[in-house]
Structure formats: structure tokens, C-alpha cells
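The instructor's notes for this session suggest beginning with a concrete chain rather than abstract definitions. Hand out the sequence below and ask the class to guess, before any prediction is shown, which regions might be ordered.
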Amino acid sequence: MTKAELKAERVRLGLSRHKMAERLGLSVRTISYYEKGEVPIPMPVTLLVKALRSLEIAQKNLALAEREQNQ
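After discussion, reveal the predicted structure:
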């Protein structure tokens, strides 16, 4: 994952650096280093970001299904 991809994913998820760091179990400074390209993004972080996105998609789909069921 590139620094641009990480930032784009964070923005797509609607998360601040602070919230992204909190969700990934990292410091805000680490997220900043990754997004600035000062530190390479390790594969485990890439996988966590992908898992976070999958979780967000699943939650949205579940909410949509619940709304449809209640109509």
C-alpha cells in the first residue's frame, strides 16, 4: 500500500488520522509518518486497513438490509 492509497482509504472511510490510528491500534504519529511516506507501510498494516474497509462495507450492507426488512 502506498502513502496515497492509505490516505485515500482513510478519507473514504471518513476517518481522521486520530480515529484511523485508534482503529488500527497505532499512534497518530505513525499514521502521519505513513501518509507522508517517511516510513514504509508494513504488510500487516495494509491487511488491517483492508479488513477495516471490509468491516465498514459489511456494516453498511447490514444496515441497508435491516432498513429494507423494516419497510
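Then share the key points. The longest helix spans residues 43-70. The CA atoms of residues 1 and 42 lie 8 Å apart.
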